[in-house]
Design brief:
Beta-Lactamase; Sigma_54_int_dom_ATP-bd_2; about 40% helix; ATP-binding; alpha+beta; about 675 residues; five-stranded antiparallel sheet; Rossmann fold; 25 helices; 4 domains
């Protein structure tokens, strides 16, 4: 029986809303997993993940040293080939190795991947089924994982007992059809290395070891050394490098097949950090014409004791140019340079509060001055920062760094970069920092209030001198850089508490912009709802129809503590559950929004309209909204077992913001003792 993404979406919506399994729309093993998740009480809308268990991770990695050595070459190769996360689990489904092409991906490393906690996925299903599995999109039980595509292959002993698995996961796009075969072959190759003993280095002496993986992959792929000499190519690459294997190993240069407008070094330079394909000109037979073949990925594979090599993955050709064209290939745009809301729309808003923000953006954008954005979580600080960059006319990239998401040491290397060998574990060729990478453009420092005080001194020096010095270097590089910073914290309170330097504040806040909360610009809610409806309908592949007017009015009655970000999440949830905007009724909304809307439109409220002035009406509405928030918080407290961190995460706010809001609502949390007599940061009423 054939199953599709559309089938999975239909089946998932039916199961979440009615507990019904549509047997011809979902695979039996997936349906069985959904039923187990439901029976264990797992909320499909939950978003929490375990924190890394550092001590256990250290113990596991020490115990499985031999496994790590045997799996590392294959995992590195698969990561570069597919551009995806590759992880290794033991028999307890503990992730003790994770390789990722992303700068930071801490979600599963050092945690247990158990069905009762994370729901249906390749990493949980493989332990149950004990066979190679694949899980895509809406087959995942939890909505937060439904952008993922994953495969897994088990390690089984001679008696069929499960003792771990190799997992491949793509957070942003579907893995290719051959991904499961690649994962299974990856397990076989790691087992071959594990038992190789003294033959380990011999097996990896050339890239021939990876030939079985390369032959399975359907996209044109090259393996080259760091000088651009071809080591291996798969069959789909043959049209562009037709006689590469007529030469001895590593003797033929990739440059022999490239058009004159680009060298191997150009290809590597243009592909570094790019998130869109880079056009690479290949010669077309013996003629002077060239064919532009998009390069999707280009990454280095480093294996201990083996000469490093590069994996270059291409797409199918673009239309053939009939005559030779001598031009410099366009510089690939990075995701960070692209507008998040389309080609011409920077943001949505027509209220006076938002028009004031727009006017200020237009005024300061062309001027090279630093800007500090202040506002609650979800008010659109990064959206405004991107608008400032786009309207500035600056030619360099827009580079965003979340100062609160990175550990202190990693934040320093991310911002400043480092020279080769600057510290233990540093790459031999060093790394370019975000300051240098944003040269000529805009650097967005989000959550600047989280930056350690000692690092603030280094940032101040960069701003004062317009230059940066890499870690481990004595040479400063001049910069043409604009900095836009943002925080949701009370910056003046941080200064008073000596947690933020006043001199840095004055340097950053040459222009200070306070972004209004969504509840302060309620007339923009219908515009935002329709915008998100159109955008998300296309992403979810559902019909685009307007939300009913009563539903939009109900959304306007809620106070939106998570602001625009929370509104977008609610619109997305409604579209997933109902299939299109026109079907979204009041009953489709989260209970806390439906309750507030019902209270605001009840009979007693309507009768008050004639006897109360506008100020009294607003006070009454605020009281009703507050009561709705209290009900929401009590419900979340029950669902999260009083865990402050989980409640704050569900609401999209910080723990401090949550405490502040609870205080404003007259809710008084108290600290309780758990069973071990330890103080626990949990809410009890």
């Amino acid at each position: 029986m054939a199953y599709s993404d559309e089938h999975a979406l239909e089946a998932w919506k039916a199961f979440v809303s009615t507990n019904t399994i549509i047997e011809d729309k979902v695979r039996p093993e997936v349906a069985a997993s959904w039923l187990r998740c439901k029976a264990m009480g797992l909320d499909p809308w939950s978003s929490g993940f375990e924190k890394e268990n550092t001590s256990l991770l250290r113990e596991k990695r020490e115990r499985f040293k031999a496994s790590l050595r045997a799996t590392a070459p294959v995992m590195k190769f698969l990561m570069r080939l597919l551009g995806s996360n590759v992880s290794l689990m033991d028999g307890e489904n503990f992730v003790f190795e994770l390789m990722t092409p992303m700068v930071l991906y801490p979600r599963t490393y050092g945690t247990f991947m158990r069905e009762k906690d994370v729901g249906t996925g390749n990493a949980t299903l493989v332990a149950t089924e004990r066979k190679p599995v694949r899980v895509d999109g809406f087959e995942h039980y939890r909505a937060i994982a439904q952008s993922y595509s994953g495969v897994a292959a088990p390690y089984l002993d001679v008696d069929g007992r499960y003792y771990g698995s190799l997992n491949i996961n793509s957070p942003f796009r579907n893995l290719p059809p051959e991904a499961l075969d690649l994962c299974v072959e990856g397990v076989r190759l790691t087992q071959e290395l594990f038992v190789a003993g003294a033959r380990y280095s011999q097996l990896l002496a050339t890239v021939e070891f990876f030939k079985p993986l390369l032959s399975l992959y359907q996209a044109p792929t090259l393996l080259v050394d760091l000088e651009g000499r071809i080591l291996h190519a798969n069959a789909p690459m043959r049209p562009w490098c037709p006689d590469w294997d007529a030469y001895s190993y590593g003797a033929q240069s990739l440059g022999a097949y490239l058009g004159k407008s680009m060298t191997f070094r150009d290809v590597v330079r243009l592909s570094e950090g790019a998130t869109e394909p880079v056009g690479v000109p290949f010669k077309k037979g013996r003629s002077r014409a060239t064919v532009e073949v998009p390069l999707v990925r280009c990454g280095k594979v480093d294996i201990d004791g083996v000469e490093p090599f590069m994996v270059m993955v291409f797409e199918n050709e673009r239309p053939v140019e009939e005559a030779p064209v001598k031009r410099k290939p366009a510089k690939p745009r990075r995701d960070s340079e692209m507008m998040p809301t389309g080609a011409t729309v920077d943001y949505i808003g027509e209220t006076e509060e938002w028009k004031a923000i727009d006017a200020l953006v237009r005024k300061v954008a062309p001027i090279r001055t630093n800007v500090l954005l202040l506002g609650e979580t979800g008010t659109g600080k990064e959206v405004v920062a991107r608008a400032i960059h786009r309207r500035s006319g600056r030619k360099g990239p827009f580079v965003a760094v979340n100062c609160g998401a990175l550990p202190r040491d990693l934040l320093a290397t991310e911002l400043f970069g480092y020279e080769g060998g600057a510290f233990t574990g540093a790459r031999e060729d060093g790394a370019t920092g975000k300051f240098e990478f944003a040269d000529g453009g805009t650097l967005f420092l989000d959550e600047i209030g989280e930056m350690p005080v000692d690092m603030q001194v280094s940032l101040l020096r960069v701003l004062q001198e317009s230059s940066v010095t890499k870690l481990g270097s004595n040479t400063a590089k001049a910069l043409d850089l604009r900095v836009v910073a943002a925080t949701n914290q009370d910056i003046q309170r941080l200064i008073a508490q000596k947690q933020f330097r006043s001199d840095l504040y004055y340097r950053l806040a040459m222009v200070e912009m306070h972004l209004p909360q969504l509840r302060k610009r309620r007339d923009d809610i219908p515009l935002l709802v329709e915008y998100f409806n159109e955008q998300l309908s296309a992403q979810l592949n559902v019909p685009h129809t307007p939300f009913p007017e009563k539903t939009v009015q109900a959304l306007g009655s809620y106070s939106w503590p998570g602001n625009v970000r929370e509104l977008r999440n609610v619109v997305e949830r409604c579209l997933i559950m109902e299939g299109e905007g026109a079907r979204v009724q009041l009953s489709s909304l989260p209970f806390y929004i439906e309750n507030v809307a019902s209270s605001a439109s009840s009979g007693p409220m309507m009768s008050l309209e004639w006897s109360l002035g506008s100020e009294a009406l607003e006070q009454r509405a605020q009281a009703l909204r507050a009561e709705g928030e209290r009900r929401q918080l009590r419900q979340l407290t029950s669902e999260c077992d009083g865990d402050f961190g989980r409640i704050a995460e569900r609401l999209g706010v910080t723990a401090d913001e949550l405490r502040g809001r609870m205080g404003a609502l007259g809710l008084r949390p108290r600290i309780v003792l758990d069973d071990e007599d330890d103080i626990s940061d949990r809410v009890r009423w």
